[in-house]
Amino acid sequence: MRDMDKLKTKIRTIPNFPKPGIQFKDITPLLLDPASLELAVNGLVQPFRDTNITAIAGMEARGFIFGSLAARELNVGFIPLRKPGKLPYNVKSVSYTLEYGEASLEAHSDAIKTGDRILLVDDLLATGGTARASCQLVEQFGGTVVACAFVVELLSLNGRSQLDNTHTHSLITY
Ligand code: AMP
């Protein structure tokens, strides 16, 4: 079996979670298996090993898991992009529209400098709203988003189209 097919066997689909109609992609079986975790982290960073990434930013909460492992792999720092009210120091923030209502993400004001080359990491690309907002947040600081990397991409929602010209990398598609 190809590596990414093996990885796919470690993603569990839970119908109607957290609400009716959503097919939730549960990555916890993948996290439990060290060989799969290694495949996923290597796969996420492989295209970016020689691209002078200066830091990885990960979206709360599952982006923290893959993002910090990916940062260790590239030997760069990790920036948590958090839900409002969680970060203790001065923050910059971005608001975006969800299917129902509004959401925001925040980063510490000293987390990114002008000219930084950021790789965004999350577990899953769905509609692309979260990733698009994360790109906008990085750009507020004067940083460049070199690429967005995801373990899972839900093709039917066409999240890539939200990310315009940003390089989008995913390991497993549905
Ligand atoms: P979106 O902004 O629509 O691209 O949604 C992406 C964010 O929501 C990611 O942080 C995912 O963890 C989470 N998410 C959205 N849809 C799903 C799904 N079907 N299964 C698991 N997580 C999801």
Task: Describe the model.
The protein has 174 residues and is of the alpha/beta class. It has a single domain, classed as Rossmann fold, CATH 3.40.50. It has helices spanning 3-8, 28-32, 34-45, 62-74, 129-140, and strands at residues 12-15, 23-26, 55-59, 77-81, 91-97, 102-108, 117-125, 144-153, 167-173. The strands form three sheets. The chain has a five-stranded parallel beta sheet, with helices on both faces. Strands 1-2 form a two-stranded antiparallel sheet. A two-stranded antiparallel ribbon has the order 5-6. It is globular, with a radius of gyration of 15 Å. The structure holds adenosine monophosphate.
Brief description of this entry?
This protein is an alpha/beta fold and 174 residues long. The chain is 28% helix and 33% strand.
